């Protein structure tokens, strides 16, 4: 069973919303606001990557596609799905679950995953620190360019650890302070590679950084060790 017991959700236009104790939809405040979600892809391509990250969005997609190339036929969770870029990067034989706090972005993701011929997808408006899923459900968790926006990193790591199976893998790309241009401001909480390694290692993950270089971005994976 994917969802937590006794959790109430409602579905609208292929997106699931979590309900509070009074039966009302729990809402969040997206980065751009849902009304501007249609501009997300253009902002990433024309502003964030060249100006903030000093990197290449094409190289970014190629790096991720190579990282994900051996992921097939499993339960995969994406934290902060955004507009659905990953539909072009992961195999459509996976059972895909996407989360984001923006229903506007998820609406775009629904279309992209449908166009990429995914047959098993579910999309949830949910925060990264309080996922609506059961323990030990997912084989792989991915998070692209969003970790710095999640607030308390300890809470986030414990939450993904909760929903991951033993020996499952977390894949992440995130800007880090030691790689960014000192003249550029990148919003959110930036953690160095050594800090990230320390946080994940303390939570029983094996942290493995990628040697790939792309501006301010760090690519890494963290495998959850067996608790036996």
Describe the protein in words:
The chain is an alpha/beta fold. The chain has a single domain, classed as 3-Layer(aba) Sandwich (Rossmann fold), CATH 3.40.50. 26% of the residues lie in helices and 25% in strands. The chain has helices at 40-53, 57-67, 103-115, 153-163, 193-202, and strands at residues 9-12, 15-18, 75-79, 95-100, 121-125, 138-144, 164-175, 205-209, 217-224. It has a nine-stranded mixed sheet with strand order 1-2-5-4-3-6-7-9-8, with helices on both faces. Strand 4, helix 3 (103-115) and strand 5 (121-125) form a beta-alpha-beta unit. The model has no long low-confidence stretch (mean pLDDT 94).
Characteristic terms for this protein:
228 residues, alpha/beta, Rossmann fold, 9-stranded mixed β-sheet, 5 helices, globular
Sum this structure up briefly.
With 228 residues, this protein is α/β, with parallel strands linked by helices. It has helices spanning 40-53, 57-67, 103-115, 153-163, 193-202; strands at 9-12, 15-18, 75-79, 95-100, 121-125, 138-144, 164-175, 205-209, 217-224.
Largest sheet: 9 strands, mixed
Look at the helices and sheets and give the structural class.
alpha/beta
The SSE string, one letter per element, is EEHHEEHEEHEHEE
Shape category:
globular
Number of domains: 1
Distance between the termini: 23 Å
CATH class: Alpha Beta
How much helicity do the residues have?
25-40%
Low-pLDDT parts are: none
Query: Gyration radius, to the nearest Å?
Result: 17 Å
Name of the CATH architecture: 3-Layer(aba) Sandwich
Beta fraction of the residues? 15-25%
Write down how many β-strands occur, each being a DSSP E stretch of 2 or more residues: 9
- The count of helical stretches stands at 5
CATH topology: Rossmann fold
CATH H level, superfamily name: Vaccinia Virus protein VP39
Q: Mean pLDDT across all residues, rounded?
A: 94
Widest β-sheet, arrangement of strands: 1-2-5-4-3-6-7-9-8
């Amino acid at each position: 069973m994917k969802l937590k017991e006794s959790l109430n959700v409602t579905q609208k236009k292929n997106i699931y919303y979590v309900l509070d104790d009074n039966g009302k939809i729990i809402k969040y405040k997206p980065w751009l606001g849902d009304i501007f979600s249609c501009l997300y892809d253009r902002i990433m391509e024309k502003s964030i990557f060249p100006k903030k990250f000093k990197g290449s969005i094409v190289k970014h997609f190629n790096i991720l596609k190579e990282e994900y190339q051996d992921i097939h036929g499993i339960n995969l969770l994406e934290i902060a799905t955004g507009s659905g870029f990953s539909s072009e990067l992961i195999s459509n034989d996976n059972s895909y679950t996407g989360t984001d706090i923006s229903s506007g972005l998820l609406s775009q993701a629904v279309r992209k995953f449908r166009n990429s011929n995914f047959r098993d997808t579910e999309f949830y408006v949910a925060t990264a620190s309080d996922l609506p899923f059961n323990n030990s459900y997912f084989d792989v968790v991915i998070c692209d360019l969003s970790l710095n926006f999640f607030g308390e990193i300890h809470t986030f790591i414990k939450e993904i650890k909760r929903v991951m199976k033993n020996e499952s893998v977390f894949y992440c790309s995130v800007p880090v302070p030691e790689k960014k241009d000192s003249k550029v401001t990148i919003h959110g909480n930036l953690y160095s590679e050594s800090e990230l390694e320390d946080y994940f290692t303390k939570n029983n993950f094996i942290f493995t950084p990628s040697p790939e270089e792309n501006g301010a971005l760090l690519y890494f994976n963290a495998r959850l060790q067996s608790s036996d």
